[in-house]
Specification:
By secondary structure, the chain is an alpha+beta fold. The chain folds into two domains: 54 residues; 63 residues, Nuclear Transport Factor 2, Chain: A (Roll), CATH 3.10.450. Helix content is 18%, strand content 52%. Strand 1 and strand 2 form a beta hairpin. The longest helix is centred in the N-terminal third of the chain and has 14 residues. The chain is elongated.
Length: 130
């Protein structure tokens, strides 16, 4: 971990990280304000997690593609956006919430939708200009 202040604090955070993310690879640690951010790979996906000094995980972000979506989330998105390609997905776990951000694209638009608790909302839409 970069800028290590207290060895016991770091040891506790590292223990919690290993408990949550066994078999994580290429972990890089950063001190961020009074917290610790870790960037790593697990199961072929880029991931990030933020821990407090007391080793509480504030959030966990996982970046992936369409194949990483749970089937029920994919079905929900494709039921409305059936002609769009899913180009990127981001899963965010924070404060007992699970939110999926899904990037979609067709030949005219880029769309961002969010899915939480089986509810989908179109958050942004951009028209392609080329």
């Amino acid at each position: 971990m970069a800028a290590a202040g207290n060895a016991k604090v770091i040891e506790k955070i590292q223990h919690e990280f290993n408990r949550y993310f066994a078999n994580a690879e290429n972990a890089k640690w950063y001190e961020l304000d009074k917290n610790y951010l870790v960037e790593f790979f697990k199961d072929g996906q880029e991931q990030r997690a933020l821990f407090t000094k007391k080793a509480y995980m504030i959030y966990h972000i996982c970046y992936g593609s369409e194949k990483h979506l749970p089937p029920e989330v994919r079905r929900l998105v494709k039921s409305t956006y059936f002609d769009y390609n899913i180009t990127r997905v981001i899963r965010v776990n924070e404060d007992k919430r699970l939110v999926w951000f899904v990037n979609l694209e067709d030949n005219k638009n880029f769309i961002l939708v969010t899915v939480e608790d089986r509810e989908m909302e179109e958050t942004k839409r951009y028209e392609k200009t080329f």
